[in-house]
Amino acid sequence: MDAPVKPATQVATVKLLIGGEFVESKTSEWRDVINPATQQVLARVPFATPAEVDAAVASAQQAFKTWKKTSIGARARIFLKLQQLIRENMGELAALLTAEQGKTLPDAEGDVFRGLEVVEHAASIGNLQLGELANNVAGGVDTYTLLQPLGVCAGITPFNFPAMIPLWMFPMAIATGNTFVLKPSEQDPMVTMRLVELAMEAGVPPGVLNVVHGGEQVVNAICDHKDIKAISFVGSTKVGTHVYNRATLAGKRAQCMMGAKNHCIVLPDANKEQTLNALAGASFGAAGQRCMALSVAVLVGEARNWIPDLVAKAKTLKVSGGTEKGTDVGPLVSCAARDRVTSLIERGVADGATLELDGRNPHVPGYEQGNFVGPTVFSGVKPGMSIYDQEIFGPVLCLAEAETLDDAIELINSNPNGNGTAIFTQSGAAARKFQEEIDVGQVGINVPIPVPVPLFSFSGSRASKLGDLGPYGKQVILFYTQTKTITARWFDDSTTSHGVNTTISLK
Predict the structure, then answer these.
(1) Taking Cα atoms as reference points, which of 215, 196, 188 lies closest to residue 21?
(2) How far is the C-alpha of 270 from the C-alpha of 505, rounded, in Å?
(3) Is the pTM of this model over 0.70?
(4) Which Gene Ontology BP annotations are present (predicted)?
(5) For residue range 93-106, what is the model confidence (pLDDT) as tens digits?
(6) Is the four-CA dihedral 334, 338, 343, 345 of positive or negative sign?
(7) Which of 363, 367, 375, 376 is nearest to 321 (CA)?
(8) What is the set of active-site residues?
(9) Residue 416: CB partners within 8 Å, gap ≥ 6?
């Protein structure tokens, strides 16, 4: 993590949101928000003080007393309004996102749109937060359930999707009757804050949504705070494991979506052109900074002959600033991220993989200071190599080989991660075998990035996830609510008494 710096007066400062007010932090620690294509300082973000974190949680705790009693219809109408405001401001949101994160404008719009889908789903809360009823389970006895909010919940979000992932979290938490404290990534918080402003404009009451910024100390404060009941996290495996262990030890619910090493299988009967396009887009899009990126392609049988064609496809992609028309691959988020990726490329060569396409040090006219790495392709990649074992999080595609579909499935199932996987084939039998035998939570069949729409739940698995319930869809309703089961019997004056019953029976 870059060392915090003191703010300069000429650069805007990112605010905290506490009790419905956007306030200037009183901290002495700040971090620059930097355009990764130009190194321009866009703003400075504060590392909130312990007192400011406590104030945000206290505000949420106070607001919960009334928000939990707010009708489902009133809650739903806020998110109907928010989705309208997001649509009206899509261009501004995408431009902000591109400036601070680096991804292309079309990809930035996609980032916002996938979050917008969750906002739309939150507006359906009346149908989602339904309990169950069993009438007359015993003589005159009914049993039913209530899905009641927990209280103050919190979210910790990563740099790679600064619009989508915050929108995974606070709309569903708030729609189910909770209040929320959000900690965005300190690397690119500006688009997140704009979305928060729109949420306030849509009618989120003061204190229901609060925002604090910072690094490890703020994360730990959220994990430890006695008044926070549940934490949602998306980010690296190292930090996610820390958050899960610390939060659950403190008695909180936690869901942590973490690192990945997503594989796909390419069978020789696959549609070649469509498959090559899918591999290039899923591997190099967003400069590879997706937890669902396809970073390993397992070429089966004669598909191993497609390597030159894949390299040729990768060479057609344009590397430039995210605002430039026709750009396919923008910069990595920081200088440190670029240096890490180039270091791993060097290690891949040293480990014996064949560097089919070297994307290091591309010439990008007009953006000579940018954090660019172009599409990079390795072949002959095997377990034990650093580029296979580690999540590179850059535009690097590793090509492995297998003789049969069974061999390819065994390779994938041997990897500890289980975020996403895909198969490219025209064989229904092969696709069915794959979906049944693969031990990965999210499966694509001729779909390279199988992130489900919000009607379903994000279902990463194994080392890619800690916690039983996913961050949106039906599962997240259960995560953000407590199931209360009520068993009731009502008597009237005509009811005949059967005396004292000392058994467990309800008869």
Answers:
(1) 196
(2) 61
(3) yes
(4) L-valine catabolic process; thymine catabolic process
(5) 999 999 999 999 99
(6) positive
(7) 367
(8) 291
(9) 462, 463
